Amino acid sequence: MSLPDLRTLLKSKPGGLVEQLLRYFVVGGVSFVVDYGSLWLLTEKAGLPYLVSAAIAFFMGLVCNYVLSTRWVFGESRIRNPWGEFVAFAVIGLIGLGLNELIMYACTDGAGLHYMVSKIVSTVIVFFWNFFARRFLVFKS
Q1: CA-to-CA distance for 61 and 92, rounded, in angstroms?
Q2: How far apart are CA 53 and CA 84, in angstroms?
Q3: pLDDT score recorded for residue 6
Q4: Whole-angstrom Cα distance, residue 31 to residue 38?
Q5: pLDDT at residue 40 in the model
């Protein structure tokens, strides 16, 4: 048995829970780079407060995640209207943003961690919220 080539993998339909979770992990990694890099740029280079930067960066990661998730991770949507699908996806992301901000605040201002370390802690927790909420509420599993 040979491994599929990258082109076949990228074009193939997602399988069950484990495959979707693995694909979402890859998509989450790409989205994290967008989010984390934007957080750093907006805070360190643009001089925005870290919580403002975190909200903007989170939204940038959300858009990246939506585009990649709808094309590669999940199958058919439960929502027929594409705008409705995006809104549902975004609402789950907004709840994730609230969790992100709360966790970052607790870890940075409460526990004294550097905001970039707090972001990693937040990312792990919010990853699982986003995946399971989107899989079961927006997409047919």
Answers
A1: 13
A2: 27
A3: 58
A4: 10
A5: 96
